[in-house]
Amino acid sequence: MKCFVDSSAWIALADRTDQYHLQASAFLRQLSASDLLHTSNYVLAETITRLRRTAGHHVAVRWAEDCRKSHLLHIHYGDQEVDDAALQIFKKYADQELSFVDCASMALMERLNIERIFAFDEDFRKSGFLLVP
């Protein structure tokens, strides 16, 4: 299974006080070695910033270092094409409260042909993606 990971899932995993921590941890444990996790530099930046505010600087740094060392995670880096596609998505869903990072994630998911997203953000489901867990 290919699955994109949103900052809402990363935060739930890293912050034991997050309301979705147990659910996120259980989902991660049930993944097999053949499951491919994907995320982006946009999502990493958003997650590091939010973790610093909610869980502290040391948690944010440790989380970022763990992600960069992980062999189970593929980090995709945005380019001008992703930014342009994200802006189009942002304009298309003007009636939703999507962040630009969410739109960039959607653009990357479309580029990579990924339908599933590990997230706790219903906006992805409303935009046609399969939300897991």
What does this structure look like?
With about 130 residues, the chain is α/β, with parallel strands linked by helices. Helix content is about 55%, strand content about 15%. The chain contains 7 helices and 5 strands; from the N terminus they run βααβααβααβαβ. The chain has helices at about 5-15, 20-30, 40-55, 55-70, 80-90, 100-110, 120-125, and strands at about 1-5, 35-40, 75, 115-120, 130. A 5-stranded parallel beta sheet has the order 3-2-1-4-5. Strand 4 (about 115-120), helix 7 and strand 5 (about 130) form a beta-alpha-beta unit. Helix 1 (about 5-15) packs across helix 2 (about 20-30). The chain is globular. The model has no long low-confidence stretch (mean pLDDT about 95).
Backbone structural class:
alpha/beta
- In angstroms, what is the radius of gyration? 14 Å
Indicate the percent of residues in helices. Answer: 55-70%
Strand content: 5-15%
Low-confidence stretches: none
Shape: globular
Distance between the termini: 13 Å
Mean pLDDT, rounded to whole units? Answer: 93
- Tally of DSSP helical segments: 7
Q: How many strands, what sense, and barrel or not for the largest sheet?
A: 5 strands, parallel
The sequence of SSEs as H and E is: EHHEHHEHHEHE
Strand order of the largest sheet: 3-2-1-4-5
Count of DSSP strands = 5
